[in-house]
């Protein structure tokens, strides 16, 4: 820590609490408290109950949770594969080529996600590639939205790689494919797992583009949360949101353990 005095550490800690609690902890605590409330007419919720979690874990909600998990896993894997390949390819380009690749992959996150949803809807609602009304159009939109984060994470990691390992392997006669699979990718594994976790978390919470594209038989959990709050069931929506947050955090915890082991390797 850069602050060495005891008073300075206390001051930094107090400033952190003042900034952290209102911005991050309080909204999450409010959602958690609302998920157990019967009504909330004063400063604090009243009428504690667990009945909202019965609706949050019924068949429809569990199906929506499974839909979100499958969408996020598919989108994350595709985005990680495409983003990593593009980052590796861009590393071998000249400066202008790298700038073009950076701009190309950042563009989907530089515009509102609803614009991405609309563009995907228009592009894939007619032959020869007709995806409208299927689950694949949702997965495609999520992939487009999260690939930029995979690309940026891997690109930043490639810049930090020490070329000595690759040069040593090449000097011993290793082929480029061998260097890629046995040298570069293992060194990039911590960044790859971090990118996968980020893509998964972003896909799990995506709503704007999903609202424009999802078919009735492929309803992710964020859409169900929006539907519950839209019809006035705020406390049920809060319980479903807690289920979504808990599931996402559990998956990210597993990814972080993989990343830790990869870092030790």
Biggest beta sheet summary: none
Query: How many domains would you count in the coordinates?
Result: 1
CATH architectural designation = Orthogonal Bundle
Principal-axis shape: globular
**How many whole angstroms does the radius of gyration measure?**
22 Å
CATH domain class: Mainly Alpha
Strand content: under 5%
What does this structure look like?
With 265 residues, this protein is mainly alpha-helical. The chain has one domain: MetI-like (MetI-like fold, Orthogonal Bundle), CATH 1.10.3720.10. Helices cover 78% and strands 0% of the residues. It is built from eleven helices and no strands. The longest helix has 33 residues. It is globular, with a radius of gyration of 22 Å. The two termini are 26 Å apart. The mean pLDDT is 88.
What key attributes describe this structure?
mainly alpha; single chain; MetI-like fold; globular; 265 residues
Produce the secondary structure layout:
Elements: H1 6-34, H2 51-56, H3 59-91, H4 95-110, H5 113-123, H6 135-160, H7 163-171, H8 176-205, H9 208-213, H10 221-230, H11 234-264
Helix pairs in contact: 3-4, 3-6, 3-8, 4-6, 5-6, 6-8, 7-8, 8-11, 10-11
Give a brief outline of the structure:
This protein is mostly helical. Helix content is about 80%, strand content about 0%.
């Amino acid at each position: 820590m850069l602050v060495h005095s005891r008073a300075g550490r206390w001051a930094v800690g107090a400033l952190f609490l003042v900034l952290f609690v209102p911005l991050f902890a309080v909204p999450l605590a409010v959602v958690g408290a609302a998920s157990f409330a019967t009504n909330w007419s004063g400063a604090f919720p009243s009428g504690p109950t667990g009945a909202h979690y019965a609706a949050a874990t019924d068949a429809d909600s569990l199906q929506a949770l499974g839909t979100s998990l499958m969408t996020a896993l598919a989108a994350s894997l595709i985005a990680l594969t495409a983003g990593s390949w593009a980052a590796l390819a861009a590393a071998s380009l000249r400066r202008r080529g790298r700038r073009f690749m950076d701009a190309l992959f950042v563009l989907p996150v530089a515009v509102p996600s609803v614009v991405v949803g609309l563009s995907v809807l228009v592009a894939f609602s007619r032959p020869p590639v007709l995806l409208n009304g299927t689950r694949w159009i949702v997965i495609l939109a999520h992939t487009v939205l999260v690939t930029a984060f995979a690309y940026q994470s891997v690109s930043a990691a490639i810049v930090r790689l020490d070329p000595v390992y690759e040069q040593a392997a090449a000097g011993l006669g290793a082929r480029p494919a061998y260097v890629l699979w046995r040298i570069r990718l293992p060194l990039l594994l911590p960044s790859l797992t971090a990118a996968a976790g980020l893509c998964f978390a972003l896909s799990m919470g995506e709503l704007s583009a999903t609202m424009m594209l999802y078919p009735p038989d492929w309803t992710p959990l964020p859409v169900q949360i929006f539907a519950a709050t839209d019809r006035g069931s705020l406390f049920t929506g809060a319980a479903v949101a807690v289920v979504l947050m808990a599931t996402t955090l559990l998956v990210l915890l597993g990814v972080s353990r993989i990343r830790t082991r990869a870092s030790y390797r």
